[in-house]
Amino acid sequence: MGRSPAEHAGQAGDRVEVRSRFDGHWARGFEIVSGDAEGYRIRRLSDGSELPVVFTVDEVRPERRREGMWWY
Asked: Given a cut of 90, is residue 13 above it in pLDDT?
């Protein structure tokens, strides 16, 4: 079973990646707006829009830096 938002320890403003419900890949460029027992509210950084769905803890992970890339 999945973790609760409290166990994930993500806080409002944390940059995260979210799992796409379309193809299952991780997408970058998001931040946590809030979290509760249902999951996380997420904002897209590119335009500041809050996404209209709640993401479960298993669909959100801390943003990972890409190692070895000169632009990161």
From this structure: yes
**DSSP-H helix ranges across the chain:** 5-8
Tokens of 71: 């632009």
Question: In CATH, what number is assigned to the domain containing residue 28?
Answer: 2.30.30.10
Determine, yes or no, domain membership for 9. yes
50 secondary structure, DSSP code: B
| 41, 52 contact by CB (below 8 A) | no
Distance CA 45, CA 72 (A): 17
* Cα 55 off chain centre by: 8
Backbone dihedral angles phi then psi of residue 28, each to the nearest 5 degrees: -95, 170
Q: Structure pTM? A: 0.77
